[in-house]
Amino acid sequence: MTGNYRIRVEKDTTGFSAAHFITHDGDQCEELHGHNYRVAVSVEGALDENAYVYNFVPLKRTLREVVNRIDHKMLLAEDNPLLQIEADEQAVTVTYPAKRKRYVFPRAEVVLLPIPNTTAEMLATWLCAQLRESLRGHDTRHFRAIEIEVEESAGQRAFYHEAWA
Asked: Which of the four, 60, 79, 114, 146, has the lowest number of CB atoms within 10 Å?
């Protein structure tokens, strides 16, 4: 069969809860808050010999493993030029000098992400990279594209879509 097919996985088990704040407009910083995020993945491609784009079961399991890395954590953007982040084995201290904000978190409860901000868009990008890495070694030869959707609250979603090369 020819054509383009797409599968989508979105389950209660592929969401996560996390705290964050974002900086914006050069001198603004949100208050610390959290979301119960929902995450979905779509994969486009040709069918394999089993008439699958990809089996739902390992895709769902892999997505769940990726989101579990950030579930019930404080998410901090390491590459945010407006934040000063210091981490040691015990704690992570983040300072936003423009507003004289300073937070200290237990190190075990923080995930430092290599992104410029913890927006839904950047979380989708990071999740996509993590999912791609986790699928390395799996048979993904039929994939043409992947899309990650991050819903931070009802009606507020960001999508990240890229070609699978």
From this structure: 114
Instruction: Indicate the burial class of 156 (C-beta count within 10 angstroms; 0-12, 13-18, 19 or more).
Output: exposed
Q: Which pairs count as long-range contacts for 59-62, CB under 8 Å and 24+ apart, including other chains?
A: 59/7, 59/9, 60/9, 60/11, 60/13, 60/14, 62/131, 62/134, 62/135, 62/138
Residue with tokens 């992400």: 113
Quick one: average pLDDT of 146-153?
A: 97
pLDDT tens, 112-138? 999 999 999 999 999 999 999 999 999
Q: What integer pLDDT is reported at residue 2 of this predicted model?
A: 65
Residue 143 has pLDDT above 70, yes or no: yes
pLDDT of residue 114: 98
Residue type, 161: H
